[in-house]
Amino acid sequence: MTAVVIHAAHDLRVEPHEAPDPGPGEVRIRIQRGGICGSDLHYYHAGGFGTVRVRQPMVLGHEVAGVVDAVGAGVTHVTPGDAVAVNPSLPCGTCAQCLAGRPIHCLDMRFLGSAMRMPHVQGAFRSRYTCEAARAVKLPAGLAVERAAFAEPLSVCLHAGAQAGPLLGARVLVTGSGPIGVLCAAVARLGGAREVVVTDLVAAPLAVARAMGADRTHALRDDPDALAPYAAGKGHFDVAFEASGSGAALVGALAVMRPGGTIVQVGVGGDAALPLSAVVAREIALRGSFRFHAEFGNAVEVLASGRLDPSPLLSEVVPAAEAVRAFDLAGDRTRAMKVQLAF
Predict the structure, then answer these.
(1) What is the pLDDT of residue 257?
(2) 113-122, 271-280, 288-297: which has the minimum mean pLDDT?
(3) Sign of dihedral through CA atoms 182, 188, 189, 193?
């Protein structure tokens, strides 16, 4: 079996990797598609992010789907031949946060392809993957694995949508037109938003945002004052999803929020200096949004229903043997939005 393994920044290798027979409560999955995420790119380009560093070889990948190859004793919800999406998030269920109903904040979370723990939690970019059966979510009939591989990023955006509150009839701003920003725009449209505006520094990814339901887009590097008209009358937008992780984008969003509006911070970045007077005087709600839990199963259902089509996001499918080329492509925003590996 082969796997895509990060050893250090720009040291990505396709290597042999074991896929043992599943034990009790486990399944083995033939991985067919794996989407390259922003965190995978951080490991590839910088060896990690923030204080998180790769300290031992680690299989990357957490946006994957495939077909069950074998099941261990006690597994009944899937059988060999079933197509599944792999939930990368596995809370322990017994810590104080889990017992308080906050499994997203589990104190012993095992998230695939993560160097936050030592030893690292190995990821799922491999041709065969043996894991806890709880991770395998059976796909409804007709849902293709390449589409199911979008379940993880869509889960992030469904959770962000829940943090925003009701979206029906809302005027929505999305700052940052990467895959998460574009999927947040699509979730806003799915939730009944009457207007969706998406911004980015550059124009190239905004074409995908329009294909995914944005009413208007603005490339702020070309037109730095594009949002200024939305600030009139104490602001225009009811909800903003800040998906770039940029402090400047967050401050810019504050300026165009109507009184009582909600900003959901989805992107992860550095520190930001906020104009607190604007937050207080206009009673802006600023909420963080981190990962997902129940939304993973919801994402699979949404994708199967056809109510949200992620296909405009998919730039290219690259054989896993060409993983280095795939990662170089995925890191080039002028050429790619989402790149999937084929195993």
Answers:
(1) 98
(2) 271-280
(3) negative
Note whether 328 and 36 are within 8 A (CB): no
80 or 49, higher pLDDT: 80
Whole-model pTM: value is: 0.96
Measuring CA to CA, which residue among 88, 90, 121 is closest to residue 103? 90
Judge whether residue 148 has pLDDT over 80. Answer: yes
Residue 245 has pLDDT above 90, yes or no: yes
The pLDDT assigned to 127 comes to 98
Tell me the one-letter amino acid at 286: L
Provide the domain limits for residue 91. Answer: 2-150+310-342
Look at residue 13 in the predicted model and tell me its pLDDT.
98
Averaged over 278-298, what is the pLDDT? Answer: 96
Alpha helices in the chain (DSSP H): 38-46, 96-99, 145-148, 151-164, 179-190, 206-211, 247-254, 276-281, 295-305, 323-330
Task: Give the Cα separation of 299 and 65 in Å (integer).
Answer: 13
Greatest distance between any 2 Cα atoms in the chain? 64
Co-location of 237 and 277 in the same domain: yes
Q: CATH code at 212?
A: 3.40.50.720
Q: Are residues 180 and 279 in the same domain?
A: yes
For every residue of 86-109, DSSP letters joined together read EP-EE--SSSHHHHTT-GGG-TT-
For the chain, the straight-line distance linking the first and the last C-alpha, in angstroms and rounded, comes to: 10
Structural domains of the chain, count: 2
43 SS3 class: helix
Contact 141, 148 (CB under 8 A): no
> In angstroms, rounded to a whole number, what is the distance separating the alpha carbons of residues 63 and 149?
5
